[in-house]
Amino acid sequence: MMKKLVLTGAAGRLGSYLREPLSKMCQELVSTDIVDDIGKLYEGESYAKADVAVYDQIAPLLEGADMVVHFGAIVDEKPFEELLGPNFVGSYNVWEAAYQHGLQRVVYASSIHAVGMHKKSDFIGIDAPHKPDTFYGLAKCFSEDLASMYWDKRGLEAVCLRILSCAQVNNTRALGSWLSYDDLIQLVTRAIDTPSVGFSVVYGVSNNDRAPVDNAKASFLGYRPKDNAEQFAEKILAEAPPVDLKDPGQMHHGGPFAAVDLGESGVASMNIVNDKKTT
What we know:
alpha/beta, 9 helices, seven-stranded parallel sheet, 17% strand
């Protein structure tokens, strides 16, 4: 069991599902976000309000930690100036603080939007070149390259989880892109407990029949998703409107993010259900 883990973005929807399993992997879990309170804490968990965009707020929390699980960011497309602090500078602050405090590894919530302008018909692997669909996706590219550089130059390991869509399945894209919460937990657990990872990328997607990405070159992480969105296919396809072959959102990996103008919300049209876990 590790001595200490730090989770950023603990107040978010995905963070809410990670807190309990992470608390069982270490003696001390420090959860952090920008809200005043995250409610009842799990055994061994403490909460610290901090802004990842401010180095002096986030860095002290990493002292004595083994690893940091970095999920803290704005999780939508916004004007570049709004994303600059949380999504760009925030990543630098986490990696630099992790290096300064001698952490072994950063586990990072990257996104399919780092490669979102690849065509969905291209069965892309983890070595697909960056092709961001938004400023949000650009921040993921920046953070992945930051992770690669800190491994090459400073020996700080990282696993970048290119999450596709971790939300309830309510559209045709999600039949391929779905990542269940149970598989999310398995993915993060493997990113933590694999003995050596160097710099690694893995797609965060469940074992969907229609998965549009290839994790073969990340198989050493031991991530073997169990859930399959095909269970929802009959209902979703029966209710789906006809495919528009001229819609970039339907033809590219980034979905709606591939279709919006830069700076405009990609989440607005996605009808994401906020089924955040409550303790």
